Amino acid sequence: MKHTCAIFDLDGVLVDTAKYHYLAWKELADRLGFSFTLQDNERLKGVSRMASLDILLEVGQMTEHFTQAEKESLAEEKNNRYVEFISKLDESELLEGSLALLETLKAKGVKIALGSASKNAKMILENVGITAFFDVIVDGNAVSKAKPDPEVFTLGADQLNVPYEQCVVFEDSQAGLEAAKAVGMLALGVGQEQDLPQADVVFPTLKSFPVGVYF
Ligand code: G6P
Ligand code: MG
């Protein structure tokens, strides 16, 4: 079936920022004295900042070590480091095929939404120069419930007046794919098949996405 709306996750789908999230979390784990692997990091993809911290502390078996106020300051420490990384982003950090896909969808008249858990999303879109492609931007500042809750996708579709089943969601996270499927959107995984068992279909990169099949 043909779809009329594309909803993109940001980190790890359009822009190569997942590695900076990982580096910033890893620095925090190192400072707290435990190791944090790339495999552990899969669980953080798509997950909000505070929920990510909870998972990180669980990995380090430090869940009970901090008060809420201390946790907020740990999350801030991670974010400050992350913002240092992303303030230097430019279009070279766009992931393979993302710019071409946005251009093709735009030319076809497909509605384009952002559905990202990140509170830094707008800065990233600006720095890599793709803000203008989006008909609606839903980010971590706009939602009250984090993925796997589908709010980050339904808000965008609702604002664009598109039925959910006409939406295709591009995601690199398990939580995001679950969110899309929960409301009947087509859940396309971007990444490795073994990391994304919930996806309806997985593509290694956006470059290999067959636009004409879905739009
Ligand atoms: C994205 C990333 C997550 C990140 C979340 C919040 O979904 O995949 O790794 O934790 O956004 O990002 P923020 O920039 O608000 O800390
Ligand atoms: Mg992502």
TrEMBL record:
Cofactor(s) listed in the protein's UniProt record: Mg(2+)
Coiled coil: none
EC number: 5.4.2.6
The keyword Metal-binding belongs to this UniProt entry's keyword annotation: yes
Catalyzed chemical reaction(s): beta-D-glucose 1-phosphate = beta-D-glucose 6-phosphate
Keywords assigned: Carbohydrate metabolism, Isomerase, Magnesium, Metal-binding, Phosphoprotein
Family according to the record: Belongs to the HAD-like hydrolase superfamily. CbbY/CbbZ/Gph/YieH family.
A Pfam short name: Hydrolase
Name of this protein: Beta-phosphoglucomutase
Gene: pgmB2
Species this protein is from: Lederbergia ruris
